[in-house]
Amino acid sequence: MKIGLFGGTFDPIHLGHLRATEEIREMFSLDTVYFIPVYIPPHKRDKKIANYEDRINMIRLSIRGNRFMKLSDIEIKRGGISYSYDTICYFENKFKDIYFIIGIDAFSEINTWHRYEELFYHTNFIVMVRPSALKHSYLEIFPKEIKGHLEDEGDGIFKHSSGKKIFFKDVTQLDISSTRIRRLIEQNKSIRYLVPDKVVIYIEKRGLYRG
Ligand code: ATP
Ligand code: MG
Fold it and tell me: Which residues does 191 contact at the CB level (< 8 Å), separation at least 6?
């Protein structure tokens, strides 16, 4: 079993998340991609986010009917601040071959994550890159503590001394962010075709993000 893990705030989930992970799932022949909404994000602790229930409901509506995509509520089950380190160890124990899927924007800040050096011993990474991004500078993106452990295999693939790999892969990164969606709603503007139709309806019904 090859398992993809896709963590995020998903406040709300949007077509950028969905299209990119669909492409990654296909490229790597992943058996399942788990969407793992953060319960209490260590980085955004001071920011207001929609409640967990609403965020998971929107994920459910978005992935229903896609047999490769599942929701994991492990972070609320564990409770407290959600650290990816704990989530990764949990999945590593269940399935051996795991791939942590992450956008290059988030990956470039990985040195701020809890126990980040150890993450590279527990999971492979798939870093989603915009097709236009510069290819020669991937090594520069790694924190210096990690660089010394890496072997450049070419083609955007790096092997860590642990044996785990980091793959940089081009995906369609639609120019959509949750921040932009929340802002549009505050301004009373349409979010149609940026999120799945069912999520548009859910947000309206629940009156989310109206400020
Ligand atoms: P926010 O604007 O609130 O930061 P976001 O749109 O970045 O939200 P997150 O939940 O923070 O969404 O991101 C979860 C993951 O999805 C991260 O790894 C991020 O890099 C990735 N991601 C975000 N937007 C896109 C997109 N348009 N295409 C592909 N991946 C994306
Ligand atoms: Mg983000």
Answer: 181, 184, 185, 200, 203
Q: Where are the domains of the chain?
A: 2-175
Q: What token pair was written down for 3?
A: 């398992």
Residues above pLDDT 90, as percent of the chain: 91
Q: Class for domain 2-175, per CATH?
A: alpha beta
pTM over 0.90: yes
Tell which atom from ligand 1 comes closest to the C-alpha of 179: 2
**Residue list, ligand 1 pocket, CB within 6 Å:** 8-11, 16-17, 20, 102-103, 105-106, 128, 173-174, 176-179
Question: Where does residue 186 rank: exposed (0-12), middle (13-18), buried (19+ CB within 10 A)?
Answer: exposed
